[in-house]
Design a protein that fits this description.
InterPro entries: ATP-grasp (IPR011761). With about 350 residues, this protein is of the alpha+beta class. The chain is built from nine helices and 15 strands. It has three domains: about 90 residues, Rossmann fold, CATH 3.40.50; about 130 residues, 2-Layer Sandwich (D-amino Acid Aminotransferase, Chain A, domain 1); about 70 residues, Dna Ligase, domain 1 (2-Layer Sandwich), CATH 3.30.1490. The protein is about 30% helix and about 25% strand.
């Protein structure tokens, strides 16, 4: 076997397709606690034999929109190829090909959210720096820019005047300091939270798990995996004392109307694991603006869940993966957690 061939195991296993080893440990550790066999498919530097069938088992795509910032800029295309290969063979993939297209396109996310009746930020897509300036003319300052293929707050910047954007528009051109990987930059209304936080609701198996408050008093707006991203140009609100950047939000539950609607959205879009971000404004809007299908979890929140006797998100995912693997394995497979054929 080629040293670059995707690895396979001897029994039923979940194959984790990903591009960042630093994000995997909480999940593999949780799978280990359940005795679930797992195999990592790390992109890039891999090959697939198009004449061969993929291995049996379960596949879980954890490919991210920000992969190009860490490794080969073509990881998105490698991921598409692998997911197409699996789909053609009829393999069961958690967050498969169509979901990956949502992960790497905020235009698709916006369309999915608005098409399901959610309040979304006013947004325009620009293809080139001059088009960006022209599109911004239709927005009252302040407004923000962001990359269509985002993650880690890529391209997210607040502008308080049109002249400010015009002065740096060249940075969004190919080869520029703020050039989007797919050439598409979004202009979006700046949504001011009623309080200095946004909310990220986490869903596992399509069902609500918990919600997290993310402090944005220091100027952050978008969530990075397990961290917040700061928008250059945003001003911090005055606060008496520093708040923890991440904390469980207890007043958002499975019975919250917005959460029920988001569960329906995920079911319609075929998304099994996701974090969805929304902002509540002073005038009563609930603005949903981001779907993260390569979701990660804040370690302090996860630790607090365990201390409180609740199930961490990583452990719930491991349980969901184990149950799904049992469904796709051969009939002779014993209950979830077994690795015997």
């Amino acid at each position: 076997m080629s040293s670059h061939a995707l690895p396979v195991g001897d029994g039923p296993a979940v194959h984790i397709i990903h591009d960042n080893p630093e994000w995997i440990a909480p999940f593999t550790e949780a799978l280990d606690r359940l005795g679930v066999a797992h195999i990592e498919w790390l992109l890039p530097e891999t090959t697939i034999d198009l004449a061969a069938e993929p291995p049996q088992g379960l596949f879980w795509s954890r490919l991210s929109a920000s992969a190009h910032t860490r490794t080969d800029p073509q990881v998105k295309e490698y991921g598409r190829a692998v997911l197409d290969w699996l789909a053609a063979a009829g393999r069961r993939v958690i967050n498969g090909r169509d979901v990956y297209e949502l992960e790497v396109s905020k235009i698709r996310q916006h369309r999915g959210l608005s098409g399901h009746g959610f309040d979304v930020p006013h947004t325009a897509a620009a293809f080139g720096p001059q088009a960006l300036v022209e599109a911004a003319a239709g927005f009252a300052p302040p407004f923000i820019t962001k990359h269509n293929q985002g993650g880690k707050g890529l391209g997210v910047r607040r502008f308080d005047s049109h002249a400010e954007l015009e002065a740096v528009a060249a940075e969004f051109a190919p080869g520029g300091a703020n050039a989007p990987i797919d050439g598409i930059t979004l202009i979006q209304e700046y949504v001011q939270p009623a309080q200095s936080f946004i909310t990220r609701a986490e869903f596992i198996g399509g069902r609500f798990h918990y919600a997290v408050l993310v402090d944005v008093s220091g100027g952050s707006f978008e969530l990075c995996p397990a961290d917040a991203c700061t928008i250059p140009g945003a001003e911090a609100d005055s606060i008496a004392e520093a708040a923890p950047p991440f904390a469980r939000r207890n007043d958002v539950t499975a019975d919250t109307p917005l959460i029920s609607r988001l569960e329906t959205l995920l079911a319609d879009l075929g998304i099994e694991i996701a974090g969805i971000e929304f902002i509540e404004t002073r005038d009563g809007r609930q603005v949903v603006y981001d779907i993260n299908t390569n979701t990660n979890y804040n370690p302090s929140v996860e630790s607090a869940e365990q201390t409180a006797g609740r199930q961490s998100a990583a452990d719930r995912i491991a349980e969901y993966v184990a149950d799904t693997l049992a469904e796709v394995a051969e009939p002779s497979v014993s209950p979830a957690g077994s690795t015997a054929w």
